[in-house]
Amino acid sequence: MTSFTSNPKVQLAATAVVSGAVVAAAVLGLQHFEERRVSKRSKKHDADESHKLAGLDHLPTLTNADKEDARNAALAQRALKGDYDEELILEQLARNRVFLTPEGLEKLRKSFVVVVGCGGVGSHCASSLARSGVGRLRFVDFDQVTLSSLNRHAVATLADVGLSKVQCLKRRLMAITPWAGFDLCLEKMDKDSAPRLLGPWEDGQKPDFVVDAIDNIDTKVELLKYCHDNDIPVISSMGAGCKSDPTRIVVGDIGTSTDDGLSRATRRRLKLKGVTSGIPTVYSTEKEGAGKAKLLPLPEEEFKKGSVGDLGVMPDFRVRILPVLGTMPAVFGYTVANHIICSISGYPVDYVPGKGRDKMYDGILAYVQSSEEKIIRQYINIPKEEGVGLKIPVSPGDISFLVEEIYRNKSIVTGIPTKLVLIRWRKPESSTLIRIGEGADEQKSSNVKLHELVCMTKEEANRHQKEILQGDKRLEDLYNQKTIELAERKIKEAASYEQFRL
């Protein structure tokens, strides 16, 4: 009997079984919480429940805590009360101190960073921030450590399987930096909880930086939009899945990020919410290739089971296992941490230059306005001065989205990438003028929809305006079938994104 229970394989199997039970219980608990959250309860009750969930008291006691855990916890309590030799801290941080200067390290030690998403990327980032001297860290994540987490998580061990990721991080990191303060939030971030989860420390200190290590697009966009609108410094990690070349990982503005799926979807959604630049992003320029891992579409039989959102164990849970090389999330996480450390300490940081296209967007917006004025004057036969002051329901973010994301900076007609503008594709059947108010308070605007615009060079658009929008020619008279079909596909694609506009 003794030999049976001492068999490592048996022990591992037992650990897996127990861990599976813990994870199952946690998932059921999260399902119950999600059902409570979306039930028709008062906002005040939801806020109260959410506040309780975000606190530290709800986290369970470690069931597998050992003497080392107890010793580390006791040391951390003493250190946070000031009972820890300052010389020992400075010796531990000596290499950073000579690199960043004493003044730079002091800024880091007084800083407060929020890490949202504590999986592969977030855990390596959090570990590096703690080791480098960041004084206060808040970890936000609703998930638990699983066996499949161990190929990429920074600090998790088999003993942590079934434990919440936020508690796992604190358990390991307080053994390394007992003087650091940790705030654990075991919950899923959304737009309602963002003010609290990204809010100040208990003494009122606001975050010096927020780390976006989320792989859910809706939550990612909500977090970045909130930080952008509230002037909270944030850096976003894009997709590490299916990547294998660490030399292709760069830091650049959100406007320069390339076309991995997560990056593209995030960038598009942010542009439709008016955010076109100003967010540093870690992304990979690596392209897909023969023999490389890729995320395959769900089999048809899976779709027949219901909507994709219904296939997970709870709403917004990932449905599939992503192909991830364990080293790549670490490189992403360390790159994020490196940027934060340098930024807070004042060490020089150079981005990949942004596109700087604000003037171009303004020019395209002016062209759309001019084109709409011409259409209105033709339909209702009013003097030229009547068209002055026409407002257009299109923003610079919309312009950026259409030109860069839908039309990829190329004319729909010839593929030429210079002197681009936007113009209606089809001739309106009636007047496009909307009037509100009278006299000096009258507002005149166009009813043009975002998906009604297509991208052309200015010369092509001028011809289109004259012969299609203000003339008698049909699209078939001016363009070949291939161009018309391409335009219709792009129009349909743009229309599918209009739900995400502000």
UniProtKB/TrEMBL annotation:
Gene3D superfamilies: NAD(P)-binding Rossmann-like Domain (3.40.50.720). It is a multi-pass membrane protein. Pfam families: ThiF. GO terms for biological process: cyclic threonylcarbamoyladenosine biosynthetic process. The chain crosses the membrane at residues 12-33. It is found in: Mitochondrion outer membrane. Residues 95-350 form the THIF-type NAD/FAD binding fold domain. One of its GO terms (cellular component) is mitochondrial outer membrane. InterPro entries: ThiF/MoeB/HesA, ThiF_NAD_FAD-bd, Ubiquitin-activating_enz. SUPFAM superfamilies: Activating enzymes of the ubiquitin-like proteins. One of its GO terms (molecular function) is ubiquitin-like modifier activating enzyme activity. Keywords: ATP-binding, Ligase, Membrane, Mitochondrion, Mitochondrion outer membrane, Nucleotide-binding, Transmembrane, Transmembrane helix. Belongs to the HesA/MoeB/ThiF family. Catalyzes the ATP-dependent dehydration of threonylcarbamoyladenosine at position 37 (t(6)A37) to form cyclic t(6)A37 (ct(6)A37) in tRNAs that read codons beginning with adenine. This is THIF-type NAD/FAD binding fold domain-containing protein.
